[in-house]
Amino acid sequence: xxxxxxxxxxxxxxxxxxxxxxxxxxxxxxxxxxxxxxxxxxxxxxxxxxxxxxxxxxxxxxxxxxxxxxxxxxxxxxxxxxxxxxxxxxxxxxxxxxxxxxxxxxxxxxxxxxxxxxxxxxxxxxxxxxxxxxxxxxxxxxxxxxxxxxxxxxxxxxxxxxxxxxxxxxxxxxxxxxxxxxxxxxxxxxxxxxxxxxxxxxxxxx
Length: 206
Description:
The chain is mostly helical. The chain is built from six helices and three strands. It has helices at about 35-60, 75-80, 85-105, 110-135, 140-145, 170-185, and strands spanning about 65, 70, 155. A hairpin with a 2-residue loop joins strand 1 and strand 2. Helix 1 (about 35-60) runs antiparallel to helix 3, helix 3 (about 85-105) packs parallel to helix 6 (about 170-185) and helix 4 packs antiparallel against helix 6.
């Protein structure tokens, strides 16, 4: 007479097909390309106008001393001849660093394209800054020297003596993007896959 044995529960239980091994990544919707570009252009356009006004207002200008032969720069004034270049570089670098960081963080979901958008915007801001400053403060020197009398001091025109300061906007933006990318690329959640239990060999049953 055979004694019926109750079936032993299997030590291995297959996971349910509905079991989730990890929360799905949160998908952040992107704004339309047109809006991203328009906002970037407007931000750098306004920044360029303000920066150009600041460049014209705060640039130290060399002073020409008028005499019978025209105008001459003294030794002290010679050191101020490149004052507008330094002022433009400082204003442009700081403005691009701050705005580039804010816009790159805002557009970071576009990946590498966000760098291109912000970089092109910084080039626009640099050009607008130069144009506004020249429009407000570039007075030709020779007519003012001819109209002055001996002993008068005539300020040098506001101008850049080299095109290198124009790159300060792009350098500030690139530095901001590099710092943010380096500090946040590890902070993004990394998708990990867990091995399903079915792929593991079942333990031996005595």
